Amino acid sequence: MKLAKLLERLEYEVVQGSDGIEIQKLVNDSRNVEKGDVFVCVSGANVDGHEFAADVSRKGAAALIVEKEVDAPKDVTVIKVKDTRYALALASAAYFGYPANEMKIIGITGTKGKTTTTYMVKSILENVGHKVGLIGTIETIIGDKVIPAKNTTPESFTIHQYFREMADAGCDCVVMEVSSQGLMLHRTAGILFEIGIFTNLGEDHIGPNEHKDFEDYKRCKAMLFRQCKIGIANADDQYFKDIFKNATCKVETFGFSKEADLRAKGAKLVQRPGYLGVAYHVTGVMDFDVEIDIPGTFSVYNSLTAIAVCRHFDVPVESIQKALKQAKVKGRIEMVKVSDNFTLMIDYAHNAMSLQSLLETLKEYHPKRLVCLFGCGGNRSKTRRYEMGEVSGKLADLTIITSDNPRFEEPQAIIDDIKVGIAKTNGKYVEICDRKEAIRYAINHAEKGDVIVLAGKGHEDYQEIKGVKYDMDERVLIADILRENKELGIEV
Prior knowledge:
Blueprint: H1 3-6, E1 13-16, E2 26-27, E3 38-40, H2 53-58, E4 63-66, E5 77-80, H3 84-95, E6 104-109, H4 114-127, E7 132-135, E8 139-142, E9 145-148, H5 156-168, E10 173-177, H6 180-184, E11 193-198, H7 214-222, E12 228-234, H8 240-244, E13 250-255, E14 262-272, E15 275-284, E16 288-292, H9 297-310, H10 317-326, E17 334-335, E18 343-347, H11 352-363, E19 370-374, H12 382-395, E20 398-401, H13 411-422, E21 428-431, H14 435-444, E22 451-455, E23 462-465, E24 468-471, H15 474-488
Parallel strand pairs: 2-3, 3-4, 4-5, 6-10, 6-11, 7-10, 11-12, 12-13, 13-14, 18-22, 19-20, 19-22, 20-21
Antiparallel strand pairs: 1-5, 7-8, 8-9, 14-15, 15-16, 17-18, 23-24
Helix pairs in contact: 3-5, 4-9, 4-10, 11-12, 12-13
């Protein structure tokens, strides 16, 4: 490929050499550079790609794309752009032959609900014969291929690499989570989304390595609605108008509000032995009943979002109803059937805000007892431990404190920090360091009508201890406990 072809959608300056040269590959990791490649010098949070200019030149790089001055041999072409992250996104699209143009791309942004909504959209569209690629917090799905995720929104090069694989595999649409970090770092720059979705906004991801303040967080979320054809928004969110004030797309809304285009009416909680769900009536631009096997009001919002998207694909009502009933997300209020006497679920809630939202949702079902089992990660903020302890102490009838990715800390020290938060409440608790034994205690001491939530691990299938990730999937632990109970004649 000619270098100029790679740069065709960019403004750039040829500092030395020629943009008419042939290049072999586009590379953004210096370790992967080979003879004839073009290397994009990205300034990252921890590493500056410009520092590797000399190293990749020695490896035979034919060209460098830079945003500041570098020392490069005279036989290496140097292209200067305003922002190498932005350049990487547009060059990646060109390198893979603009695969996003071959599919309809649906992007979902917001503080909560992105993951569940992506799976709901995928479920509905596949139910009527679409082949759907997915990029999200848990994994990327390309046909039968599943790739565990490192970031909610991958680097731009990886996104277009996935898009190319998806298009080649016959996908006609892609649903993806678009994080504020991904937007800020231009990972999705140059993609024209068919539909962009705004779920909600809360104070999150604000800190030295993320967003400097809430205004910056809000500004980055809003970027999606200047690069999509249709913007679909939660009309009930207090920041909806802020997010859309500079939008360039057609805007549609959903929610409980009378002003919303697609509305939920008469929402009611559904409770059966070992089961929690929610049902409501869709009104406004559509008219039908829905029941979802995921509890809580936020499930109404997530499903309304999915319905608002799939309306643009002319999906029949019966298909929407069937697909929403089947939609499941690993580790997001994932119910695991253990007994008709109580309800057990796994959820990823791993900070105070998400744990509070989860426990408040479950309390609406008036369980006999709400039991919350959780731990906190090592080498992370102690404040999170105090806050989660306080939330569980206030809202749960019993807290079971256990271990969760202690990393390089002692599990007992983390448990002691959680107890500092619980001590601010009158909440009852037990502490059982071994997570399997903690889950065994929860199951074997459950009372009729209890709701038990195993929080913090969600989709994760490992426990990280002193730099090593050990296999540990809570679904497997539950199955082992039930098998061992059966051998011992213990009924639950």
